[in-house]
Amino acid sequence: MGDFHQNGIITTLHDLSSRPLEAMEQELLEFSRERPLGLILPSLYSELEGEALPAIIQALKPASYLSEIVIGLDRADESQYREALKFFGQLPQRHRVLWNEGPRLQALDQQLQDMDLAPRELGKGRNVWYCMGYTLASNRAESVALHDCDIVTYDRSMLARLIYPVAHPRFNYEFCKGYYARVADGKINGRVSRLLVTPLLRALKMNLGKMEYLEYMDSFRYPLAGEFSFRRDVLNDIRIPSDWGLEIGVLSEMYRNYANNRLCQADIADVYDHKHQDLSADNEAGGLSKMSIDICKALFRKLATRGVTFNTESFRSLKATYYRIALDFVETYHNDALMNGLSLDIHNEEKAVELFAENIMKAGEAFLDRPMERPFIPSWSRVISAIPDVLKQLREAVEEDHREFGIAGDGNAAANS
C-alpha cells in the first residue's frame, strides 16, 4: 500500500485501498459512453513470441471499456505481419495493427521524409508517433493509454489505474504518468532512473539554482516509466524524441504545453518487471549506455530552451556534483534493500554510476558539438499544416493493409471495419 504524501508540484494519485478491479472497470465502462477510451501498444514482432505479450493480450480481452486498440508493429516482414494480424485477432475490441515496414506506410514515410517531416531514427519514438497519428485519424478515442509490450508482471488493473485519471469526466487531467516500485525477483531494479535521472536532477538544481522545470521533473516518482495516458487533444501539438529520450521528452512537452494542475501521476502496480537492458559499458551506441546519453541530451536541450548556457566547464562541474550525489544514493538504496530483505550489489551499482558520470560528459560534448541537432519528431499539427490530408492517407494505408492481409471471412475484421 502506498502512502498519501504529495511530493513536488505534480498531483500524485496513490493506491490507498486496493480497490477491487471490477468496481473500477465498471466505472470506466460508464465513463467510456461519454468519453471513448483507447490503448496504444508499441510492439516489436519478436515480442509476439516472448513471454509477456501473449499474457498481456489475454489480460486485455475483458477490458470492454476500450473502444479501440492501436498496435504499432516494428521489424516485421509480410509473413510476420500476417502472423501479427492472427495474433492480435484474439482481441474482441476494435483494433488495428500498423505495419511500419509495409510498403504503404513506407511510402507515406518517404513522402514525409521528402518534406523533412518524418522521424529520423528507427525505434519506439517513431512507432509511438505513427500510432498517435492513427489515433487522431481514427477519431474513435477521446482518452488514450499507452504502455509497453514487454511487461512480464502485467495485470489488467495496471491499465485501469493508468487510464482512470484522464477518463473520469469530472477530472481535468490532460496527462497521467504511471509509476511503481521497480522491485522483482528479490532485487531493486530501475538503475537508470535511480542512479542517473534523480541524482542528475538534484545535481542540476545544485548547480543552476531553483528552476520550476527541475522541480517539475523531480516531482515524478518514476520519470522513465513507459506507461502514460492522455486526452486526445494532447496528440496534436506534442513533439516527441525518436531516441531513448522519449519519456523525458514527453514530460518536457507536457510541461511546455499545460499547466501543472492538468498533469498527474498514478500508482499503477505493486510489482513491475520487464526485459532488462545491458549496461553496455564498452558500447555507447547500445544498452543503458546509449539510453543514459540520450536522456542527458534531452535534459540539456530542454534546459537550453529555458535560457541555460552550457560549456565544457559547466558539464565538468555537473559531472562532479552528480557523482557525489549518486554515490550517496547507492548507500541509500542499499540500506533500503537490506531493510526489505532484498539484494543490491554495491559494486555493480557504483560501476553504473561511474558509467553514467562519464556519459554526462559525452552527452555534454555531443550537445556542444551539434547545437542545431533536431531530435524531436515534428508535431502532428505541423505535419497536417504541410499535408492537409496526411491523416486520411495514414488511415487509408492502415485500412488497406488490414483488408489485403487480414484473414478472409474473419468476423473480427468485419466488426472492426
Automatic annotation (TrEMBL):
InterPro entries the record matches: Nucleotide-diphossugar_trans
Superkingdom of this protein's organism: Bacteria
Name of the protein described by the UniProt record: Glycosyl transferase
SUPFAM superfamilies tied to this protein: Nucleotide-diphospho-sugar transferases
Organism taxonomic ancestry: Bacteria, Pseudomonadati, Pseudomonadota, Gammaproteobacteria, Cellvibrionales
GO terms of molecular function: transferase activity
Sorted UniProt keywords: Transferase
Protein's UniProt keywords contain Transferase: yes
